[in-house]
Every structure is written in structure tokens, then in C-alpha cells.
């Protein structure tokens, strides 16, 4: 036990060191309170000014947007005196206090403004930590050597790497606003009572903690639906990826065979499904498989419930997805197979391997290692393949045991129904988090093990 | 492979001959079956679009009295032309914006060294796993605040942002094939990073950027969820929403008109794909090659 706690202390100490520098010096202490102050003590004026300006911008924004100085922010009583940052935080924690009237609070808007404020403050904290660490390190170096590098050298180093940041800045800002902020919003909505009975701005939303999660675990309706839908989603994603991958590989091999003439024409026919917008194909298939009027049943002279029987609907879904997805993998395999180094075949043949052995023991493993990242992405894509389910079956046939879901609904279409049709935002958010954890976990783990990632 | 078969041809036995014939039969029957399965629905939808009458029951692959009535109705009774124009505008702008954003991001992550690179790569990867519409409510409120609701062009913001992660990885994988000594030579000659990017790397990136351009041009034609959430007025809709609403709930009444609409959307897009297939194969396999 004793060693355990010792280790723990050591670990947390090292994180602390990583963040703030080897030890706290006077310069570091100064920088904690005013950014740049420690740098000024270290006699690095340029750097001190930069850090100070960052802090100044934040303080000025807060002061200038506060109603004590200017007209204040829209939609808030003048008496508050809150500026941009304080109002954002207040809004995030309270989700609003006033209903009705001119200054009524709109909870989702407050939460989003709060999230933007939190992201901006996160950036400030990032610079604050860098500022403390920098002050500490320079002070320690000075104590040791009695010499101080000028700000110039520091800026030269920053300038070296800054091209990367400047060039990717627009993308990063967009990602922050349009990808990260909404993800955080969805995440936090899971802890609120934002549902069909709470309609902002008429009503306020409140934080409810883990109440919604308990609902999913405890209420049988929600639990059955979640487990049922989640299992089907997994099965669907695995089968859909597996079938299209091997189908595409098979077709690529067939077309590449030396016996096939007019390869170009065959290939063009085979990639046609990829070239047609998926939504169109899916809606066409929905009608194609129509039990009463569809041409397939008319052609067969039978009355097969392609999309109306729960099990058959699932098979139809997988078959249609095969039709849609095979061309992508076929093209991918064709491209990779032609770029293969031919000498390995020679080597294998010299060693006495037959065609089958060469394929399964030489070609296939190399192929697999190359497409693995795309295969994982394809799995994630199928897991969240909204279009396939929504346009072909729309989740039907109905399942009376489920909450807001049908037999063929996968998690993502279930979430869509909950938000768009039933306004169960909080429950939908819980499902989003679970999907995210699952898919994000699998993919991250896998990517960490790919060569592409290790090299960087 | 050819060496192997040539050797066999020299001393063919009867068994070899039968095997060869069976291989031909097998291969061509696979090709013919797949071609039929792929082409039949396509022919059926084209045929349906020329069928007289409007219901699914009358639709057939080879219409008895072919007519253009569905196409005429489509343009007269719906705002199809407007939808088409909206989608085309979004597609073109999205293509341009995406190419710029991905090109630069891909270059930065493939070629430059900077603090936080690994973290950045991992985060954009995780971001990509999050389906964009889960943050829909947030985007809706964000757009509401900035007055971007019901503005088709604002969709470009989301499309262009959403594609960054996947395509950055793709471009990064592709640039692995381009020797880094090219960059180093340029630096030695005194080129700045910007000059190196513009004069040396950018021209070499054209195949992969073509791939990004084509796929991003395509994206808005497929997408249904975002416009269905963010666009409300009829004349600002995109094709996906317009077409879907045409047959949603009353599939049996408007089916042939929907077929006509589908043909007009799919035909040019499919032709573009077929025309550029060489680039698409290159782009796909390049991204995979070095993963």
C-alpha cells in the first residue's frame, strides 16, 4: 500500500512538473498572477509583452462587453454588469433563470455561448501554463549559467514552427466551432432534461446529473430498446463491412484475371453503383422491393415481404448495402493490387508456393495491412450508416417492444427519430455518447497500432 | 502470372484444357450475373422515368408508351430547377473550399514538424468518428444566432469542415510517396516554406486533390440530414430533400416523377465519376498504401 501511494505521488508530481516546469521560481510565481511578469523579471521584454497582451485581450473583452461600460450584451438586464466571459459561465452553470418577458433566458443558447466561452478560456489556460513554465525554465537556466537568452532566439524558434499553425488556423477554427463545440453540446445535453416536455425558450432546461443514464439502465423499455438496437447495429456494421470488403476483393481479382477481355467496360459497369448518389439508389430499391407494387415481386409472380418481415428486411438491407458498397472496395483493391511489387510473387514461386498459397499467405496479408485503416473507417461508416437504413426501411417494420425504434433501426437512425420526431434530445445525446465511446475507442486503439501513426 | 500460363500452354494435357474452359465459364458467369444485378435496377429506373402514368405499379423497365410527361411535370409542378441550382452552387463552392482546407492541412501534417502534431492527428481522427448530425441541435442554435438558417450556402461550412479529418489522413498518406528530399533541396536553395509548398508540393498533389474535389463535389447531392434540419423554405431546398419529399409517404403517386428527377441528378454525376475513375482509383489506393 505504501509503495502504491508513493508511486501515485511521484506520478502526479511529474505531471505537475510537465505542466509548470521543474520547480517554482520567483519568476514563475510572478507569472501565475500576471502573464508576462516573470518574463519581465527574467529581462525578456519582448516575450513578456506578448504574454501580457494575450491576457489583456481577454480582460478587455470582458470589460468592454460588460453593461457597466457599454450597452452590454443583448438579451440581458443592464444591472448585471456581466461581460462576455462571466455571462457565458453563468449561462452554462444555471442554464437560465428567467422565463417569459423581454429578458427571458434561452437555455440551449446559453449553453452554447457557455461552451464557446469555456473553449476560449481553455485556450487562455493553455497560454497561462506555457507562460508559467517558460518563466520557470528561464529562471532556472539563469541561476545555473548566469546567462539569459534573448527573446529573439525564442521567437526564432516559434517562427520556425508557426507556419504550420498559421496555415492550419482556418481549419482549426472551423473544427473548433463546427465539430468540437457541437460534440460538447451533445455531450452535456445528456445531463439535462431537454426533452419533449421542456421546450425552450418557453421553458427552461435544467441539469439533472446522471438521471437520464439511470433511465436507460433501469426502465425496461429503454433498456430493451438500447440493447436490441445496439446488438443489431454491431451485427449490421460487421456484416456490411465484411461482405463489401470480400465482395470487392473477389470482383477485383475476377476482373484482373488475364482471361477477362474488355476489362475497362466490365469495370465501368461494376462501379456504376458507386457513381449513382446513394440516396437515389436506396429510394429506388425501396420501391423495387415494394411488396405489392414492386417490379421484383411482379417479375417473380410472388408476394414476398422483402421489407415488411423483420428478418427478411434485415437481409434485404444487407443485400442492398452490398450492391452499394462493393464498387468502392473493388476500386480500392484494383488500385492496390496493381501497385504491388511483383518480385515478392517471384520469390514465393521460387520457394514452391502454388497460386492459392501465394494469394492467402503473401498477397492477402499485405493487402490487409494496407487497407486496415480504411477498413476501420468503413466499419465506423457502416456503424453510422444513416442513409442505408433511413432511406431503405426507415427502421420499419415496427417493433412494439421498442421505444421509438423499429426492427431495422440502427443506433443512428434511432437517435435521428428521437431528435427530429420526438424531441427526446437528452436520451438521444446519451446514445450519441455511447456510440462515440464505442466507435472512437475501437478506432483509436486500432490507429495507435498502425504504422502510419507510429512514424509521426 | 503470364509466365506461369505460358509454360503450361507448351505441354497442355486434356485436364488442363478442361480446367481452362471451366475457368472461363466461371469468370464470365460471375461477371454477367453481377452486370445484370447492377444494370437491372438502373435500367428499371430510367425506364420508369419515361413511363406514362404516375404510380409505381405502372413503372417498368421498358415502357410501352414512352413519354416525357414526367420530366415536364417535374419542372412545372415542383421547384426542381431551383433545387438543382442550389445543390450545384453548394457543390461547386464546397469543392473549392474543401480542396484549399484539405490541401493545406494535409501538407502541414505530412511535411512539417510542430508541437502537438501527434495530438492533432489523433484528435481529428476521433472527431471523424462523431457523426455530424449528433451535434445538430448545437449547429442549429449556432446558425440561428449567426442568421445562417435557411441559407443553403451556409451548409458549405459544415460539409467543408466535416471532410477535413478523413481527407487530411488521405493526403498525408499520399504525400508519404513524395520523397522528402525534394523539400530539403528547396530549403537549401533558400526557398521559404510557403514557396516550397506552392512551387514543389502543390503540383505533385494534384491527383489526390482531384480525388478530394470530386468526392466533395458529390457530397451535397447525397446529403439529406443537414439540409432537412437547416433549410425550411421550399425554394431553398437541395435536391436530396426535395426528391425525398416527393415520394415520402405517397410513393405510389409520384414514383415516376421521382424517377425522372433521379435520372437528371444521377446521370451527370455518374458520368463525372466514370470519366474520372482513373483519378479515383489512384486517390483511393494512394491513401491506403501508406495508411
Automatic annotation (TrEMBL), chain A:
Major location (coarse): membrane
Transmembrane segments: 48-69, 109-130, 163-191, 229-253, 265-285, 315-337, 358-380, 428-448
Membrane topology value: Multi-pass membrane protein
GO cellular component terms attached to this protein's record: maltose transport complex
Keyword Ubl conjugation listed: no
Keyword Lyase recorded: no
Subcellular location: Cell membrane
Keywords assigned by UniProt, alphabetized: Cell membrane, Membrane, Sugar transport, Transmembrane, Transmembrane helix, Transport
CDD domains found in the cross-reference section: TM_PBP2
GO molecular function: ABC-type maltose transporter activity
Gene3D superfamilies given in the database record: MetI-like
InterPro entries, sorted: MetI-like, MetI-like_sf
Domain ABC transmembrane type-1: 230-443
Any Gene Ontology biological process: maltodextrin transmembrane transport
Coiled-coil spans in chain: none
Family to which the UniProt record says this protein belongs: Belongs to the binding-protein-dependent transport system permease family. MalFG subfamily.
Described function: Part of the ABC transporter complex MalEFGK involved in maltose/maltodextrin import. Probably responsible for the translocation of the substrate across the membrane.
PANTHER family noted in UniProt: MALTOSE/MALTODEXTRIN TRANSPORT SYSTEM PERMEASE PROTEIN MALF (PTHR47314), MALTOSE_MALTODEXTRIN TRANSPORT SYSTEM PERMEASE PROTEIN MALF (PTHR47314:SF1)
Protein name (Swiss-Prot/TrEMBL): Maltose/maltodextrin transport system permease protein
Organism this protein belongs to: Vallitalea longa
Automatic annotation (TrEMBL), chain B:
Chief location of this protein within or outside the cell: membrane
UniProt xrefs under SUPFAM superfamilies: MetI-like (SSF161098)
Keywords assigned: Cell membrane, Membrane, Transmembrane, Transmembrane helix, Transport
Transmembrane segments: 21-46, 83-109, 121-146, 152-171, 200-222, 255-276
Alphabetized PANTHER family for the sequence: GALACTOOLIGOSACCHARIDES TRANSPORT SYSTEM PERMEASE PROTEIN GANQ, MALTOSE TRANSPORT SYSTEM PERMEASE-RELATED
Domain of life: Bacteria
All residue ranges annotated as the ABC transmembrane type-1 domain in the record: 84-276
Upper classification of the organism: Bacteria, Bacillati, Bacillota, Clostridia, Lachnospirales
Short name of any one Pfam family annotated for the protein: BPD_transp_1
Family: Belongs to the binding-protein-dependent transport system permease family.
Subcellular location: Cell membrane
Molecular function in Gene Ontology: ABC-type maltose transporter activity
GO cellular component, one term: plasma membrane
Gene Ontology biological process terms, A to Z: maltodextrin transmembrane transport
Bilayer topology term: Multi-pass membrane protein
Protein name per its UniProtKB record: Sugar ABC transporter permease
Amino acid at each position: 500500500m505504501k509503495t502504491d501511494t508513493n508511486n501515485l505521488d511521484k506520478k502526479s508530481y511529474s505531471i505537475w512538473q510537465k505542466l509548470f516546469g521543474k520547480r517554482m521560481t520567483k519568476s514563475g510565481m510572478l507569472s501565475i498572477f500576471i502573464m508576462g511578469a516573470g518574463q519581465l523579471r527574467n529581462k525578456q521584454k519582448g516575450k513578456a509583452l506578448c504574454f501580457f497582451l494575450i491576457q489583456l485581450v481577454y480582460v478587455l473583452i470582458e470589460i468592454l462587453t460588460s453593461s457597466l461600460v457599454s450597452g452590454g450584451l443583448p438579451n440581458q438586464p443592464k444591472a448585471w454588469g456581466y461581460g462576455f466571459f462571466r455571462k457565458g459561465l453563468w449561462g452554462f452553470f444555471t442554464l437560465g433563470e428567467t422565463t417569459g418577458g423581454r429578458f427571458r433566458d434561452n437555455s440551449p443558447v446559453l449553453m452554447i455561448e457557455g461552451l464557446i466561452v469555456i473553449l476560449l478560456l481553455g485556450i487562455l489556460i493553455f497560454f497561462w501554463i506555457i507562460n508559467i513554465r517558460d518563466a520557470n525554465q528561464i529562471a532556472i537556466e539563469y541561476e545555473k549559467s548566469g546567462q539569459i537568452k534573448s527573446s529573439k532566439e525564442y521567437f526564432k524558434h516559434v517562427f520556425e514552427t508557426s507556419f504550420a499553425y498559421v496555415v492550419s488556423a482556418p481549419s482549426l477554427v472551423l473544427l473548433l466551432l463546427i465539430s468540437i463545440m457541437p460534440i460538447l453540446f451533445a455531450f452535456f445535453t445528456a445531463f439535462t432534461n431537454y426533452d419533449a416536455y421542456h421546450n425552450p425558450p418557453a421553458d427552461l432546461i435544467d441539469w439533472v446529473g446522471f438521471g437520464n443514464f439511470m433511465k436507460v439502465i433501469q426502465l425496461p423499455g429503454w433498456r430493451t430498446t438500447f440493447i436490441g438496437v445496439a446488438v443489431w447495429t454491431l451485427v449490421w456494421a460487421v456484416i456490411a463491412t465484411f461482405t463489401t470488403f470480400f465482395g470487392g476483393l473477389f470482383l477485383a481479382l475476377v476482373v484482373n484475371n488475364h482471361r477477362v477481355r474488355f476489362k475497362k467496360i466490365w469495370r465501368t459497369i461494376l462501379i456504376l453503383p458507386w457513381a449513382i448518389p446513394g440516396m437515389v439508389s436506396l429510394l429506388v430499391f425501396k420501391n423495387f422491393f415494394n411488396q405489392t407494387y414492386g417490379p421484383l415481386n411482379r417479375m417473380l409472380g410472388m408476394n414476398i415481404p422483402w421489407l415488411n418481415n423483420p428478418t427478411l428486411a434485415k437481409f434485404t438491407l444487407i443485400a442492398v448495402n452490398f450492391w452499394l458498397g462493393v464498387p468502392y472496395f473493388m476500386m480500392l483493391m484494383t488500385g492496390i493490387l496493381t501497385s504491388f511489387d511483383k518480385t515478392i510473387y517471384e520469390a514465393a514461386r521460387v520457394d514452391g508456393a502454388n497460386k492459392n498459397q501465394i494469394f492467402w499467405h503473401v498477397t492477402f496479408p499485405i493487402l490487409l495491412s494496407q487497407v486496415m485503416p480504411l477498413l476501420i473507417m468503413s466499419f465506423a461508416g457502416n456503424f453510422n450508416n444513416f442513409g442505408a437504413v433511413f432511406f431503405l426501411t426507415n427502421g420499419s417494420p415496427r417493433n412494439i417492444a421498442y421505444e421509438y425504434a423499429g426492427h431495422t433501426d440502427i443506433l443512428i437512425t434511432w437517435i435521428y427519430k428521437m431528435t427530429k420526431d420526438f424531441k427526446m434530445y437528452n436520451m438521444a445525446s446519451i446514445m450519441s455518447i455511447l456510440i462515440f465511446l464505442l466507435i472512437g475507442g475501437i478506432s483509436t486503439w486500432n490507429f495507435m497500432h498502425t504504422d502510419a501513426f507510429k512514424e509521426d | 502470372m503470364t509466365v506461369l500460363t505460358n509454360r503450361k500452354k507448351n505441354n497442355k494435357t486434356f485436364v488442363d484444357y478442361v480446367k481452362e474452359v471451366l475457368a472461363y465459364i466461371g469468370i464470365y458467369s460471375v461477371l454477367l450475373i453481377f452486370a445484370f444485378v447492377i444494370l437491372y435496377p438502373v435500367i428499371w429506373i430510367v425506364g420508369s422515368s419515361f413511363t406514362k402514368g404516375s404510380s409505381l405499379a405502372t413503372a417498368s423497365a421498358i415502357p410501352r408508351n414512352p413519354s416525357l410527361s414526367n420530366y415536364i411535370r417535374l419542372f412545372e409542378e415542383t421547384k426542381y430547377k431551383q433545387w438543382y441550382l442550389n445543390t450545384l452552387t453548394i457543390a461547386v463552392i464546397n469543392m473549392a473550399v474543401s480542396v484549399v482546407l484539405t490541401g493545406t492541412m494535409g501538407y502541414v501534417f505530412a511535411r512539417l514538424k510542430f508541437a502537438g502534431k501527434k495530438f492533432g492527428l489523433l484528435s481529428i481522427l476521433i472527431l471523424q468518428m462523431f457523426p455530424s448530425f449528433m451535434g445538430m441541435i448545437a449547429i442549429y442554435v449556432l446558425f440561428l444566432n449567426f442568421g445562417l438558417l435557411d441559407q443553403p450556402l451556409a451548409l458549405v461550412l459544415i460539409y467543408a469542415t466535416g471532410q477535413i479529418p478523413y481527407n487530411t489522413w488521405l493526403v498525408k498518406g499520399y504525400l508519404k510517396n513524395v520523397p522528402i528530399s525534394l523539400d530539403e533541396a528547396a530549403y537549401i536553395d533558400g526557398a521559404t516554406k510557403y514557396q516550397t509548398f506552392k512551387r514543389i508540393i502543390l503540383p505533385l498533389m494534384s491527383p489526390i486533390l482531384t480525388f478530394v474535389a470530386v468526392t466533395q463535389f458529390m457530397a451535397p447531392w447525397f446529403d439529406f440530414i443537414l439540409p432537412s434540419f437547416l433549410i425550411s423554405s421550399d425554394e431553398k431546398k437541395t435536391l436530396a430533400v426535395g426528391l425525398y419529399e416527393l415520394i415520402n409517404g405517397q410513393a405510389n403517386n409520384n414514383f415516376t416523377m421521382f424517377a425522372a428527377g433521379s435520372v437528371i441528378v444521377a446521370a451527370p454525376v455518374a458520368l463525372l465519376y466514370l470519366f474520372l475513375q482513373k483519378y479515383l482509383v489512384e486517390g483511393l489506393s494512394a491513401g491506403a498504401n501508406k495508411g
